[in-house]
Amino acid sequence: xxxxxxxxxxxxxxxxxxxxxxxxxxxxxxxxxxxxxxxxxxxxxxxxxxxxxxxxxxxxxxxxxxxxxxxxxxxxxxxxxxxxxxxxxxxxxxxxxxxxxxxxxxxxxxxxxxxxxxxxxxxxxxxxxxxxxxxxxxxxxxxxxxxxxxxxxxxxxxxxxxxxxxxxxxxxxxxxxxxxxxxxxxxxxxxxxxxxxxxxxxxx
Length: 204
What we know:
This protein is an alpha/beta fold. Helix content is 37%, strand content 20%. Helix 1 runs parallel beside helix 5.
């Protein structure tokens, strides 16, 4: 059983064009999964310091996805990235509602800045938990929204190909490419990884 978990930073710095591009890119990602008939479900959660974790799309089949808009959530507050990631991992590791465990999982963490307001988890603790799911060949991809997230992703244990910094203009194309790689992972187990050339293109 497969599943995609997307964690979206809704902190105040995401306001404006960035927010619209991020939502559009997520909708495009799910549409690509649907078009490619990837047999997965998708859960989307947002986070900020006012509400560290809120699910706005819960285990949706890609073909029945309703586009997420700023009516679902708007940017505000700070960036409790550690705490939100911990809650997302709780959900993923719990498995499906019937108790069945996921064997192939893609976790996409999209943020435009550094952790700044968590109270429950440290970076080291979240890295430990991410290492545990990576050992099961779950894919953990960090997408920097117009943000050079290389140092941040490395702190969380991400390999070089598992983080990408995308400009606002390229965000839709970057997420579409990620969906294609995600489909291959579902079919073959091959990692969702970006080459240096692909990452350079995403920053344009």
